[in-house]
Amino acid sequence: MSGRWLALDTATELASVAVGVPPAVESVAMIAGVRTHAAELIELVDRCLAPLGLRPAALAGLVVGDGPGSFTGLRIGWAAAKGLAQERALAVQSVPSLLAAAAGAAAVLGAVPVAVCFDALRGQVFGAVYVVHPDRVETLVPPAVCALAELAARAPVRPRAVVGDGAVRYAAEVERWSGVAPLPAAALRPTAASLLALCGRNGAGRLLDDVATAEPDYGRPAEAQARWEARHGRPLSDPSRAGS
Q1: Which of 128, 6, 167 is nearest to 77 (CA)?
Q2: Whose CB has fewer CB within 10 Å in the chain, the N or C terminal residue?
Q3: One domain for residues 123 and 12
């Protein structure tokens, strides 16, 4: 890939932005707290571009974390990515946020099985298992919402590392499964940096054909939608599909 690409990931409490010519990273910035993502994300983009003397108009494309993860965080990140892409007609790729976290561990451990667990509340995690090779990604367990025990049962191998806030929350279960202590995401490189490293790698993500209608993998409905559907006993209609 030629030119500098901007990477955004807002799937968890740790939002990050990176810029570089994939797979290289030239600048990276990060903030903590989903509640601050909306107010600070564009400022974070500016903070990442400024050291390189860049403006968004100079970008060649975008890569965005695809989730699953925080419903609010993902909406904020994808809204920002769509706005930047549509204004400047940029190409956009998406890569699972779980995979980006796994790639952070792989940068240290090499091509070994890595499980990723983001805390999904309700006793569940957003989980997946990958092997990140230098030229491709092997998905052993695709992203799913499940209890940690279910993720362990689906995994064909024992992971060498388990990463994420969900892994930390269920540390005892993680250690019984993997034999190693969980790694918090903050101990690894920011996920946006991993998105750049993965951009264009076989099996890593997808090119968005229609940026306007594309959506991330939320994993499950937002809490407010789940409560509404439980109260009314039927799915909440999707206005975007009206007339289809």
Answers
A1: 6
A2: C
A3: no
Helix (H, G, I), strand (E, B) or coil at 102: helix
Q: What is the pLDDT along the chain (244 residues), one digit of tens a residue?
A: 679 999 999 999 889 999 999 999 999 999 887 666 667 888 899 999 999 999 888 999 999 999 999 998 899 999 999 999 988 889 999 999 999 999 999 999 999 999 999 999 999 999 999 999 999 999 999 999 999 999 999 999 999 999 999 999 999 999 999 999 999 988 999 999 999 999 889 999 899 999 989 999 998 765 545 554 456 566 555 433 333 3
CATH number at residue 11: 3.30.420.40
Query: CA torsion sign, 129 to 70 to 183 to 200?
Result: positive
Q: What's this model's pTM, rounded to 2 decimal places?
A: 0.88
If asked whether residues 83 and 155 sit together in one domain, one would say no
As beta bridge partners, residue 64 has 8, 94
Strand (E) or helix (H) holding 5:
strand 5-9
